[in-house]
Amino acid sequence: MIRQDANDYLRLFLQDIPLMDVRAPVEFNKGAFPNSQNIPILDDQQREAVGTCYKQDGQDAAIALGLQLVTAEIREQRLEQWKRFVNAHPEGFLYCFRGGLRSRTTQAWLKEQGIDYPLIKGGYKAMRTYLLQQMEVSSEQIPLVILSGFTGSGKTHVLKKTSHHVDLEALANHRGSAFGSDVNDFQPTQINWENQLSIDCLKHRHHYPQSGLLLEDESKRIGRNILPDCIHQKMEQAPYIFLERELEQRVAIIREDYFTSSWPLYQHQFQDAADEKFSSFMLGGLARIKKRLGGVLYQNINASFTLALEHLFATGKTELFDAGIRLLLQKYYDPMYLYQLKNKQRELLFRGAESEILAWADDHLKTMT
């Protein structure tokens, strides 16, 4: 049975339908969708040339130029790539920017090969608009609860053990602090970050319509990714639960997450340059908050971390970082957190240790509407 072109965007995103994106790489790299694969009909240079021709000489001339640029050899390569995608994803769809010329040309070429493959009506623009609209709807309809706690409390670890949550830091690939980037300093584009967040909220709304959603307490910016205004404003007003953890436990969690676990990744990635790269990352992160720390505190923590880094490179052990971590927590992060918490004046629903937080979340989040 021949499948029809579609604009059922809800089903596409709820079911993670595979999508073949035939836009140019520059468009795809700026923003796309989680289950999309870029197999362009025109490369970046060809797209630019056709676009210029369209503006200067009109659509017919642009179509003629596009056909001229896509030689028989290039066309054959494109077809082979498209056919592999179709064979791998018979349930999928294709799209271009607006579901127009490029999508229909791709369809026509596949049709000549005996393949009927549907496109997304409205293309990328319509799907992107849909996700932005659904983000607003999610912010209005989903009851949010914020998981709060001092830095190093292990909020992310606890969050992942709950049934109804979205891990904002995982979506942004950043821990949300001056030391939060990973070994490759990779984060999604702002558009991709927003698309994935909207999809996750959409899935929660439809799969768990009676349930609240737990989010970790975050600032508006997580690394280079910025929370959409509607979500951030809802988070600022949402009630919170507070995860309690002793100071020395928090020191140990930070040492494990930021030093013990990260150092082997740097060794694997940079090999002989690992010492230099890891030192640059850690001391560079400290330097980014130098003004807020103040000169004396910054110098003390910098000296402590420098000594700890030398010990790490010589022995492979991370325990000497504890002194600097403790200073950061007691003199910087904890006072800053208390100040922010006081200013927000949100409703406190519950506070407790990890096991108590998990029990509360399982009991309360599932029926909040």
Automatic annotation (TrEMBL):
It catalyses: 5-methylaminomethyl-2-thiouridine(34) in tRNA + selenophosphate + (2E)-geranyl diphosphate + H2O + H(+) = 5-methylaminomethyl-2-selenouridine(34) in tRNA + (2E)-thiogeraniol + phosphate + diphosphate; 5-methylaminomethyl-2-thiouridine(34) in tRNA + (2E)-geranyl diphosphate = 5-methylaminomethyl-S-(2E)-geranyl-thiouridine(34) in tRNA + diphosphate; 5-methylaminomethyl-2-(Se-phospho)selenouridine(34) in tRNA + H2O = 5-methylaminomethyl-2-selenouridine(34) in tRNA + phosphate; 5-methylaminomethyl-S-(2E)-geranyl-thiouridine(34) in tRNA + selenophosphate + H(+) = 5-methylaminomethyl-2-(Se-phospho)selenouridine(34) in tRNA + (2E)-thiogeraniol. GO terms for molecular function: transferase activity, transferring alkyl or aryl (other than methyl) groups; tRNA 2-selenouridine synthase activity. GO terms for biological process: tRNA wobble uridine modification. The active site is at C96. The keyword Lyase does not apply. Keywords: Selenium, Transferase. It is an enzyme of class 2 (transferase). The keyword Phosphoprotein does not apply. Monomer. Belongs to the SelU family. Involved in the post-transcriptional modification of the uridine at the wobble position (U34) of tRNA(Lys), tRNA(Glu) and tRNA(Gln). Catalyzes the conversion of 2-thiouridine (S2U-RNA) to 2-selenouridine (Se2U-RNA). Acts in a two-step process involving geranylation of 2-thiouridine (S2U) to S-geranyl-2-thiouridine (geS2U) and subsequent selenation of the latter derivative to 2-selenouridine (Se2U) in the tRNA chain. PANTHER family: TRNA 2-SELENOURIDINE SYNTHASE. This is tRNA 2-selenouridine synthase. The lineage of its organism: Bacteria, Pseudomonadati, Pseudomonadota, Gammaproteobacteria, Methylococcales. The gene is selU.
